Amino acid sequence: MHNNPEKEKQLAAKEAVTLLKDGQIVGLGTGSTIFFAIEEIGTLVKNGLQIKGVATSDASYQQAIALGIPMLNINDVTRIDITIDGTDEFDDNLQLIKGGGGALFKEKIVASMSREKIIIADASKKVNALGKFKVPIEVVPFAVNYVRQQLKKLNGNGEVRMKDGQTFVTEQGNYIIDGDFGPINEPIILSRHLNEIEGILVHGLFVNMADSVIMGVHDTTVTFTREALA
Ligand SMILES: O=C(CO)[C@H](O)[C@H](O)COP(=O)(O)O
Questions:
Q1: What residue owns the CA closest to ligand 1's atom 6?
Q2: Which of 6, 49, 143, 209 sits at 20 to 30 Å (Cα–Cα) from 136?
Q3: CATH label of the domain that carries residue 156
Q4: Are 29 and 69 within one domain?
């Protein structure tokens, strides 16, 4: 049986939104998987679900507003109850590489403020070792060459992300360096090293963050939980 990523994304999204409850403040991730979740939430809100959203990108904000989902500014909230977001890769320990869409800064802040963090994914995102997908690293433009040199010391190779022939610029006005470290056997240690490099605003290793990953596979879903790892 062939995988159908679009269908798997939709199934995971449909499953995730069943977790939402009246009164919650909900973090809305970014990307093509979350697109489906926001659509589903729009329908639930039309049918009476009372939640308020906090977006991780302009795209998710605009989609949510167009669907009539009430939205809050992150600086007007002191808590986020639950966040649903996508991922570029996840491993058996529910460690993630995120930021393929370049929204990693807001995604990490929203995740850090969230009591519960749910990741949704199609089956292609599950890997034995992180690292086939290059680690997105958001860098203040002044520090780009310095950071690339520092990545070399970590046995990494970083290329500045381009889009349509231009340097990709994040919503914060920064650049993304996509870091190739080969298979990442110790994501927690690499994450710590990256945290220590001046000029890096945020990186796409989301370690010990996801509470669960809902993965669409063929015509069903499988849920992996952090609780089950302990
Ligand atoms: O981190 C992200 C954006 O910054 C996305 O969650 C990630 O890139 C997955 O995207 P998609 O659902 O389109 O595969």
A1: 86
A2: 6
A3: 3.30.70.260
A4: yes
Place of tokens 């199609």: 122
Whether pLDDT at 1 is above 80: no
- For this structure, is 107 an active site residue? yes
Beta carbon of 32 within 6 Å of any ligand 1 atom:
yes
pLDDT tens for 25-50 read 999 999 999 999 999 999 999 999 99
Which amino acid is located at 10 in the chain?
Q
- Name the average pLDDT for the chain: 97
Among protein residues, the one with the nearest Cα to ligand 1's atom 8 is 100
pTM: 0.97
Condensed to tens digits (0 to 9), the pLDDT of residues 75-113 reads 999 999 999 999 999 999 999 999 999 999 999 999 999
Residue-number span of the structural domain to which 193 is assigned: 135-204
| C-alpha Rg value of the chain to the nearest Å | 17
Q: What pLDDT, in 10s, does the model give residues 133-170?
A: 999 999 999 999 999 999 999 999 999 999 999 999 99
Residue 75: partners with Cβ closer than 8 Å, 6 or more residues away:
none
186 and 212 together in one domain? no
**Looking at this protein, which amino acid is placed at residue 131?**
G
Contact yes or no for 192/203 (Cβ under 8 A):
no
Q: Does residue 224 share a domain with residue 178? A: no
| Ligand 1 and 83: CB distance under 6 A | no
Which ligand 1 atom is at minimum distance from the Cα of 104?
4
For 77, the 3-state DSSP assignment is: coil
